[in-house]
Amino acid sequence: MEGRPSVGQAPPFDRELGVALEALGEVEPLTPERLGEWQERDAALRPWPSVEEIRADGRFAVEEVRVPADPDGREVVLVSARPAGVDGPLPLLYYVHGGGMVAGNARSVLPRLLEECALPLRLAVVSVEYRLAPATRYPGALEDCWAGLLWAAEHADRLNIDADRLVLGGKSAGGGLAAALALLTRDRHGPVPIGQLLLSPMLDDRDATFSGRQMAGRDLWDRTSNATAWQAVLGEHYGAANVPAYAAPARAEDLSGLAPAYVEVGSAETFRDEAVAYANGIWQAGGDAELHVWPGAFHGFDTLAPRAALSRDARDARSRWLRRILAR
Question: Is the pLDDT assigned to residue 2 strictly greater than 60?
Answer without folding.
Answer: no
